Amino acid sequence: MDERLFRNTMGKFATGVTVITTKYENETVGMTANAFVSVSLDPKLVLISVANKARTLGYIQNAKEFAVSFLSDQQKEVSMRFAGQLKEDTAFEFFLFNQLPVIKDALAAITCNLYAEYEAGDHTLLLGEVTDVHVRDGDPLLFFQGKYRSLQSLEEISTL
Q1: How far, in Å, CA of 157 to CA of 160, rounded?
Q2: pLDDT per residue over 124-149, tens digit each?
Q3: How many helical (H) and strand (E) elements, i.e. helices and strands, does the chain have?
């Protein structure tokens, strides 16, 4: 099968949108990712998939810790910025949580210590052991078929 068919097929799986961040020495980096999954409750583990060519990968490997911010449906521009789709000359203002940079007003933020890593094709799978969580109410930003989406409100669903 060709690469385009595979990408289109994977696009049929709706995902939430996250921004993965870390700080190493005096530099903060981040990237948009939808390849995120909860792995284990005991110990509390999550997995992110980072392209081997992404500069964020080396920072996470050196820092040995990272954060994941789950974006709300009001944060499409934040996702686009960290995906390299918007060019901003201004510095991004992060919120510090458990000494790691996270996205302010995200639905949730989790901090992790790097637990293990596995090379997998053109990506590296990073397991993180969750050290803290912060949660707030709201609706998620979703990604489906190459486009940003959001949930219908419960009121709209109940009138159908």
Answers
A1: 6
A2: 999 999 999 999 999 999 998 889 98
A3: 4, 12
